């Protein structure tokens, strides 16, 4: 029997639902988890205020055809005496790993545990969290885990803003400003498509677009190899343009992965 698994932190939106629907199409049994994982939140981050609309989420899972929704409590996953963590290595050092120390250690640990608990044939992860996807792909390979990781394209609002549970934090004015990140990344992708291969020039082009939006503070913008997440670009693997911004207190991330012609890829390139 084929089992598809979709790990989430809840506050489900169309991005999550697209993963559940794909799991439903591909598998006999579909398991969704809803767990706001405390070990991936740093001090001063939004663990306590993270939205938890459980009844609504359960209805949405049912409507997409999920068979099982796993909703553990923190003490179920990290009982008293818990002390084993996954160290995800250099893929976790840059990008969000630099801004959120320990974040990917928490992510890798909880995903390993959830995959061990559910033992799925396939697990579905969004490209929206591209660094997370690469770290999980690498972990599954490095630790000889039997699950196939299925990357899924980023689902966006009409104006390009990547769907995120954190978009709910934005005021009306901030919501109008938020798509500047994807506009900036796509602007740099255009310049890449015209043959520019200098990552600093590409970064600068994206930063100039973001600078036009006074409500936004940049956390990072990076132009990297999409496989290694390093600034040295490998031959033929395309380009990852990734950014994180603060709008007020809300931190949003987004990325595009483009091939040599600048076309956006719906999936991570082969390792
Ligand atoms: P989260 O609940 O934020 O931990 O996300 C759970 C899963 O949904 C992760 O694999 C995310 O990458 C994925 N996801 C979140 N937002 C989107 C989106 N806009 N499009 C596609 N996948 C998404």
Radius of gyration in whole Å, from Cα? 18 Å
CATH class of the largest domain reads: Alpha Beta
Distance between the termini: 28 Å
Shape-level CATH architecture of the largest domain: 3-Layer(aba) Sandwich
Please write the string of helix (H) and strand (E) elements: EHEHEHHHEHEHHHEEE
CATH topology of the largest domain: Rossmann fold
Estimate what percentage of residues fall within beta strands. Answer: 15-25%
Mean pLDDT: 96
Indicate the structural class.
Answer: alpha/beta
The largest sheet has its strands arranged as 3-2-1-4-5
**Can you tell me the CATH superfamily of the largest domain?**
HUPs
Number of strands: 8
Supply the number of structural domains: 2
Shape verdict: globular
Count of DSSP helices? 9
Major sheet: 5 strands, parallel
Low-pLDDT regions: none
**Small molecules (ligands, ions, cofactors) in the structure:** adenosine monophosphate
Helix content: 25-40%
Which terms summarize this structure?
271 residues; alpha/beta; Rossmann fold; Pantoate--beta-alanine Ligase, Chain: A,domain 2; 2 domains; five-stranded parallel beta sheet; binds adenosine monophosphate
Verbal overview:
The relative contact order is 0.14. With 271 residues, the protein is of the alpha/beta class. The radius of gyration is 18 Å and the shape is globular. A five-stranded parallel β-sheet has the order 3-2-1-4-5, with helices on both faces. It has a three-stranded antiparallel β-sheet with strand order 6-7-8. Helix 1 (14-26) links the parallel strand 1 (3-8) and strand 2. Helices cover 34% and strands 19% of the residues. It folds into two domains: 3-155, Rossmann fold, CATH 3.40.50; 165-264, 2-Layer Sandwich (Pantoate--beta-alanine Ligase, Chain: A,domain 2), CATH 3.30.1300.10. It is built from nine helices and eight strands. Helix 5 packs across helix 6 (130-142). The model has no long low-confidence stretch (mean pLDDT 96). Adenosine monophosphate binds at residues 8-9, 15-16, 18-19, 125-126, 128-129, 152, 154-155, 162-165.
């Amino acid at each position: 029997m084929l089992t598809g698994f979709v790990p989430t932190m809840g506050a489900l939106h169309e991005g999550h639902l697209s993963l559940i629907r794909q799991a439903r199409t591909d598998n006999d049994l579909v398991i969704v988890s809803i767990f706001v994982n405390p070990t991936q939140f740093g001090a001063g981050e939004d663990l306590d205020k993270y939205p938890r609309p459980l009844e609504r989420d359960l209805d949405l899972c049912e409507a997409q055809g999920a068979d099982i929704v796993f909703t553990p409590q923190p003490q179920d996953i990290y009982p008293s005496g818990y002390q084993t963590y996954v160290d995800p290595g250099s893929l976790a050092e840059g990008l969000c790993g630099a801004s959120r120390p320990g974040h990917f250690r928490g992510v890798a640990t909880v995903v390993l545990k959830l995959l061990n608990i559910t033992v799925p044939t396939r697990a579905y992860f969004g490209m929206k969290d591209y660094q997370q996807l690469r770290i999980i792909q690498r972990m599954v390979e490095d630790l000889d885990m039997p699950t196939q990781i299925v990357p899924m394209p980023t689902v966006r609002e009409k104006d390009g803003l990547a769907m995120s549970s954190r978009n709910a934090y934005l005021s009306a004015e901030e919501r109008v400003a938020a798509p500047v990140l994807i506009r900036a990344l796509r602007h740099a992708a255009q310049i890449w498509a015209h043959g520019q291969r200098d990552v600093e020039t590409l970064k600068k082009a994206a930063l100039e677009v973001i600078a036009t939006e006074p409500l936004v503070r940049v956390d990072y913008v990076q132009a990297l190899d999409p496989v290694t997440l390093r600034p040295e670009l490998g031959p033929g693997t395309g380009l990852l343009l990734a950014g994180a911004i603060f709008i007020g207190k809300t931190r949003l991330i987004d990325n595009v992965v483009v091939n040599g012609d600048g076309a956006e890829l719906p999936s991570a390139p082969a390792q």
